[in-house]
Amino acid sequence: MPMASRWLLREVGSRGGMVTPRTHDRPLGPLGPPVRRQRPLRRGWRFGLLVERRYLAQAQPTGLMEALRARGHEVTLVDPQGGPVDVGDDRWLHGLDMVVARGRSWELLCMMAVAETRGVATVNLRAAIAAVHNKAEMGARLAAGRVPTPRTLLAPGARLTAASRIERFPLVLKPVFGDNGRDVRVIRDRAELERLGWSEPLVLAQEFIAGDGHELKLYVIGHDVWAVRRPAMLLADGRADGPPAAPPAGEAVPLRPGERDLALCCKRLFGLELFGLDCIRTPSGTVVIEVNDFPNYGSVPSASERLADFVMKRARATRRRT
């Protein structure tokens, strides 16, 4: 079976069912000139959803896929971790008008680079996803952009206890590359820090920001911003040390003054179009803890339809430029 075929989980057209992926007639080899973009004769568009399997059971991007399908468009689900990635194989891109990605794996980032080099439009851009995948780079951009964010230190794991600049506790420790709360730990005092065994070469130590027991999600689609409040997953006393089996339910709340501008500032800093901010509301203002590409948009009203509207708008704008 061709490698490109193993990547394709299934293709859902306007009539549903299984569709055999088409391949290029030209032989495989080094990346050549951009894919020729011809105006399709079909009524709908063809979208590729480049998605890590762990997200297929979540609301997104399944909801986006169903909304696009309901509008008569074809959707191909592509698994970036379905086999070894042949970096010269671009057959999975054939016929696609746009690639929408959810995930941060190295395989996904590699395939996004192929798509962009071949001239296929992508959401989000590969560079934008990579910038928030690396939490050290994320923190540096937030600080340089004067975004309210906790003080963050980057250090070798074995030398963190010797960092004289660590004065305030509790601390939140995170891996440089991680998501969904993986290996996040709350350290309450220096004695606990000195007992710490950290398995990775580098660690991020972030000041713990106390709130009212809740965290705020700012969800962004293009230039539209929504606020969702939910119980905090990390508490200063160490409870919820790591992610629960499922995130707690949230509720949509009104944006406070400055929060929309805060979200759009992060949009400009990272070049993201579909993203969310993990925040804490404090008496002195809203503090950004992390930036995440293509979140689940929980509690955002009509999220799937709004995502489909945005993706279609981007696709039309891309066609006009080509």
Q: What would your notes on this structure say?
A:
The chain has 322 residues and is of the alpha+beta class. It folds into 2 domains: 3-124 and 302-321, Rossmann fold (3-Layer(aba) Sandwich), CATH 3.40.50; 132-293, 2-Layer Sandwich (D-amino Acid Aminotransferase, Chain A, domain 1), CATH 3.30.470.20. The chain contains 8 helices and 14 strands. The protein has helices spanning 3-7, 59-70, 106-117, 126-133, 135-144, 190-194, 259-270, 303-321, and strands at residues 8-12, 46-51, 74-78, 98-102, 121-123, 152-156, 171-174, 185-187, 202-207, 214-221, 224-231, 251-253, 274-282, 285-293. The strands form 3 sheets. Strands 1-3-2-4-5 form a 5-stranded mixed beta sheet, with helices on both faces. Helix 2 (59-70) crosses helix 8 (303-321). It is globular. The two termini are 34 Å apart. The relative contact order is 0.15.
List keywords for this structure.
five-stranded mixed sheet; ATP-grasp_RimK-type; 322 residues; 8 helices; 14 strands; five-stranded antiparallel sheet; globular; alpha+beta; single chain; 25% strand
In short:
Residues 139-319 form the ATP-grasp domain. It is built from 8 helices and 14 strands. It has 322 residues and is of the alpha+beta class.
Supply the CATH superfamily name of the largest domain.
Answer: ATP-grasp fold, B domain
Give the second-level CATH assignment, the architecture of the largest domain: 2-Layer Sandwich
Going across the major beta sheet, what is the strand order? 1-3-2-4-5
Structural class call reads alpha+beta
Query: What characterizes the major β-sheet?
Result: 5 strands, mixed
**Which CATH top level class of the largest domain fits?**
Alpha Beta
